[in-house]
Amino acid sequence: MRRIAIALIAVCACAIAGSASASGWTSSVPFANVVASTPTIGASYPSDATGAPHPGACGPGSFNSNHSESWLAVQPGTENIVGTSKFFFGPWSTFYNFDLGSYTIPNGTPAGDNQVQGYDCVSTRTQAMPPSWTNNTDPNVAWDLEGRVYQTTLPFNAYWTNLHPNSAIDLSYSDDMGRHWVKGNGGNDLEQSPNSSSLQLGHVEDKEWVAVNDDPLSPYRDHVYAMWSVFNNNTTKIRIAVSRDRGQTFSKAVTITAPSQTGPSNTYIYPSVDAAGAVYIAFVSFPLNKNKAPTTIYVSRSTDDGQTFRLFLAAVKNVGVLSATDLPNTIFRDGITESFSASPTYPGHLYLSYEDWDGTQMDVKFTQSTDGGLTWSIPVVVNDAANSSTTDQFQPAVAAGPNGAVAVAFYDRRQACPNDKSVFKGDAGRTNFCIDTSLQPYKDSGTGAAPVGGNVRISQFSWDPDQPQQHVGGIGQYPCAAVEDPCTTDGFIGDYFGLAVSTGNIYALMISTHYPSTVRADEGGPVYYQQQVLATVPRIDFGTGY
């Protein structure tokens, strides 16, 4: 505990401000970076040499390693933030051993993090599975107007071993900015998989998300919308459940997609609520055979509190997707295709950003609608690097804020890897490899969002996605979705990262392996774990009109 307390002080001190006018970006603005992830104590299931957790083995331990994948949301009318991410447990990152954690960030300043309670053996006071689960995942978070923050959760039992049941969809909420979490819906699942073991596929819940109606004049004010996908062999359907009493109870889950409208496989769900209280959903529909049918992004709207949705309309057709899991020159898997946000300023104004693979490299594109999703603008490329034709820009996030502000952020490989201690030996100087975060601001004055200047860099340091390659106790520390050591494919940096816009700032919660941990590697020196970095970009620096 004493070592962890020292580590907390050391990590929280890593705050850096700058304008990052490095080569590759023609514009710059002042911003600040601070490491938000800190070592904390929680509980989970250690892995054995095969990567399998065992029933009855759950106990307290340290979350002092990788912190992958993230989301964040700003409390309406304030600069208070709650973030969430995966917290990897002990030294078992390579066995994909993680739980869900949250970050308390009052007035934009990180004030600590913790494991989300209600899914582990300590907070549930039992080894029974469930309510204790080997893992919990998929960070997402949204506020209501009374100061309560919500997230849908995916507790599951490791699918690479033989446990029962597979998974569930739950919702938790917090009234103290993410320090303590309570399971909603009376402590009951929104839906639970009927599988007899986690090795059985055929009904698997995943890709859950939450949205809250923050329109103060809406009759559906503070209603909570939980959505998720159910994967069933060759089909994937989207389900919804709604709470009309601030998370205490939820309606019975219903299916809102039909294969006849959208195709057989629908996932990557983003719900959002506009300035008039209408609920929107954007998702990607994948064909069974990628070579014979297009990948399409659909959007639909509900004006009756999520009870019915109009016909699903294609916002973008023929989206270029990777045929493999990983980008060609890396071992980490690519993430979610799109990101979506409805305007809190103008009813019916919608913003959609997505990654588009052209066969050799990835671009980030942007399209919008000003008529509630009936029609969409011609997509435009967001990334403006001179070397965009030979570098990857991927995993976009889009967010809309007060007074017509819109922002798109994305992971960016326009800059060569630096010669830095945090960069793995041999990676220094590599092109289209190390990662930064770029931001493109937009302003919607009522006729649609227009770009404000060009891309700006909001990461102080480029980081190496192949880190950490160090070992602890003989175990590799690289997070591996393939559950193997050494990890040779399907590594994990996260499927998405967080972006939010407040009255005063643009905030991003994103990955970096630049910052050394206090954990000593077998090879000597620190382990360069994936950390969550909070970027703060003042809106005023884009001009008073923004």
Characterization of this structure:
This protein has one domain: Neuraminidase. Helices cover 3% and strands 37% of the residues. The chain has helices spanning 2-12, 121-124, 259-262; strands at residues 15-18, 31-35, 40-44, 59-63, 70-74, 81-88, 98-105, 113-115, 135-137, 142-143, 149-156, 168-174, 182-183, 191-192, 204-212, 224-232, 235-243, 254-255, 265-273, 279-286, 296-302, 313-316, 338-342, 350-357, 362-369, 380-381, 393-400, 405-412, 436-444, 449-451, 456-457, 471-472, 475-476, 498-501, 505-512, 531-538. Strands 9, 10, 11, 12, 13 and 14 form a six-stranded antiparallel β-sheet that branches. The chain has a five-stranded antiparallel β-sheet with strand order 1-2-36-35-34, with no helix packed on it. Strands 27, 28, 29, 30 and 31 form a five-stranded antiparallel β-sheet that branches. A hairpin with a 5-residue loop joins β10 and β11. Residues 1-14 have low confidence and may be disordered.
List the helices and strands and how they pair.
Layout lengths: L1 H11 L2 E4 L12 E5 L4 E5 L14 E5 L6 E5 L6 E8 L9 E8 L7 E3 L5 H4 L10 E3 L4 E2 L5 E8 L11 E7 L7 E2 L7 E2 L11 E9 L11 E9 L2 E9 L10 E2 L3 H4 L2 E9 L5 E8 L9 E7 L10 E4 L21 E5 L7 E8 L4 E8 L10 E2 L11 E8 L4 E8 L23 E9 L4 E3 L4 E2 L13 E2 L2 E2 L21 E4 L3 E8 L18 E8 L8
Antiparallel strand pairs: 1-2, 2-36, 3-4, 5-6, 6-7, 7-8, 9-11, 10-11, 11-12, 12-13, 12-14, 15-16, 16-17, 17-18, 19-20, 20-21, 21-22, 23-24, 24-25, 25-26, 27-28, 28-29, 29-30, 29-31, 32-33, 34-35, 35-36
